[in-house]
Amino acid sequence: MHSINEADSTIIAEIEQAGDTLAQVREGIGRAIFGQKEVVELSLLALLCGGHALLVGLPGLAKTRLVETLGRVLGLSEKRVQFTPDLMPSDILGAEVLEESETGQRHFRFVPGPVFCQLLMADEINRASPRTQSALLQAMQEKHVTVAGARHDLPRPFHVLATQNPIEQEGTYPLPEAQLDRFLLQIDVPYPDIEAERRMLFATTGAEETSVQPVMTAEQLIALQRLIRLVPVGETVVDAILELVRSARPHDDADPFILDSVAWGPGPRASQALMLGVRARCVMDGRFAPSVDDVAALASPVLRHRMALTFSARADGETIDTVIERLCGGIT
């Protein structure tokens, strides 16, 4: 019993220390990103869970700047790829080139692509062809790539923050459900409020822009990711996660509203994402255990890209978020 208490006290001390560190991280991000508190919190949460995030928003809402700032503050090497219809898998993963030595011997050398970083921004990911999207899929899921039959491990940690424009759909290739499921969260990026936009005007049009300094290292982020997996989750919260995810699936015993509204529902990855997410959220808030409120708060970003509405539901004006809100009413 003594060893269990000792382990618990160690975790509590580490959570307290993590809360202080994350407060500094938020402060550092706030020097470059104005407003958008929920977007920043969810992006940071996705990285703390060791996952990937899909940022959906109109152009000019600081999505690229957010990724650059996160990389800088967290001490991660970051790269950006602008996805276009003619982008090839080798443009992301890398390729083997034939070289000739001074003695005339020829050999292949692997030249790594931009995916070999710790934080990859995939800008307008839905503009790339399905072939290129699937090449990134392996990197996201397996944390390694295979080129010419040879395996190449990616740096640790490895995260993808991808962006999508929700309005302009001409010349795009919608992400397949299998790839959408690889994103821990879908984060909708709204317009900033008036005060945030006012601060942005002065900060970005002056003689000097605010510089962002590193607060953490990649090793510290990995340690935080390990800590989050050690946070205990009560049975009440586990039951709420299972009830929420399973109630979103249209099956024979489902609620008639879900049968009419949902074409397909979330799989087990949604439960895993919620389990990690509630742990990370409580650590970010400096709490020692997650609650059912954490499940409700993360329901939309975790589920909205893992569900689809029926045609009749869309015709009736239903949205994914209103369906999820109704589901959350059953667990709170």
TrEMBL record:
Similarity field: Belongs to the MoxR family.
Residues annotated as domain ATPase AAA-3: 52-185
Pfam families associated with the record: AAA_3 (PF07726), AAA_lid_2 (PF17863)
Keyword terms, alphabetized: ATP-binding, Nucleotide-binding
Superkingdom of the organism of origin: Bacteria
GO molecular-function terms, A-Z: ATP binding; ATP hydrolysis activity
Organism for this UniProt entry: Kaustia mangrovi
Protein name: MoxR family ATPase
InterPro entries, A to Z: ATPase_AAA-3, CbbQ/NirQ/NorQ/GpvN, ChlI/MoxR_AAA_lid, P-loop_NTPase
Domain (ChlI/MoxR AAA lid) ranges: 261-326
